[in-house]
Amino acid sequence: MPTLRGALPDYPWDAMAPYVARAAEHPGGKLDLSVGSPVDPAPASVREALAAATDAHAYPTTAGTPRLREAIAEWYLRRRGVTVSPDAVLPTIGSKELVALLPFLLGIGAGEAVVFPRIAYPSYEMGAAMVGADPVASDDPAEWPEHTALVWLNSPANPDGRVLDVPELRAAVDRARELDAVIVGDECYAELGWSERWRDKRIPSILDPRVTGADHRGVLGIYSLSKQSNLAGYRAAFLAGDPEIVKPLLNVRKHAGLMVPAPVQAAMVAALADESHVDAQRERYRARRETSCPRSRQRATASTTARPACTCGSRAASTPGRASPISPISASWSDRVTSTASTRRITCAWRSPRATRPSRRRPGGCAPRENFLDIERLFGIHG
Fold this sequence. Notes:
The protein is α/β, with parallel strands linked by helices. It has 14 helices and nine strands. The chain has two domains: about 10-40 and about 275-380, no CATH class; about 45-275, 3-Layer(aba) Sandwich (Aspartate Aminotransferase, domain 2). It has helices spanning about 10-15, 15-25, 45-50, 65-80, 95-105, 125-130, 165-180, 195-200, 210, 245-255, 260-275, 275-300, 330-340, 375-380, and strands spanning about 30, 90, 115, 135, 150-155, 180-185, 220-225, 235-240, 345. α6 links the parallel β3 (about 115) and β4.
């Protein structure tokens, strides 16, 4: 019987089930930080655009409508300071499928390496595993091996919120070009910078001309509307960059039937054109963060022996639908944090993708205490 190239670990959130059940036994209920799914409404303008496009009797185009491609290019120039041709963008069915499938779509396989951050969303590694490539967790470009074919950066990072500045991005791009590797910036949280430095300053894109020298050769950026627009249920994302990579990706995706539904494409146009709802959502998150983080810090200091009910490993995981605990997730989360006297009922998802293997850093499978992400980092205080 045909099988995958190699056995994959159990899905991390399936392994969370007993811990979720245990946390739910707490008298005040659980605080589930393992899935950062948005709880606020999708913008009215976006829902109206979706509803108006529901007479979608024809197949949608894999490349996206001309208006959507133009909207993506306009958004990159307006919000990211990046000039990109409408022919060098591509809508995707959310960004997770792209992260997991990109090694396959690029033709990467055994004998090649996929590099990703040391603390990272698990799908980077799973994409490598599904094609038999070598997964390499490294944040130092000098460590990237000669057989590297694909490099993932994540800025702002999931889950710790770290932002890579222009010199760091430029060093990574330069090294990837030395290796003749494709480098991709996963920038799904670019509108959600929390530190003072990024509060009123644009977070740099990997496609920024200061990074690439105005040459997108070998470079891609990806972005999702799940976070900025609360569209996790729509599965709305896109990539942009080197047209010599986008063109063959489009061809493979056409053959595979990977098409964003037409009503969602219309909704994406509306979301990209409306900046007011993004600003409002950012401030909504900021208010929750400012309410929750100081109280969480106090409780973490007061309860040195209490540990969250969590499963841990050598690398942090994020969430199944790409929504991350970088942002304060909901008003109910905030309300419950400020009303409870214990952190023991918090359920996290800190299990490594290699869920069945003990950590190489410490016998018994747990990372050192200094590697645990506390509540402040989950809210993106760093970066």
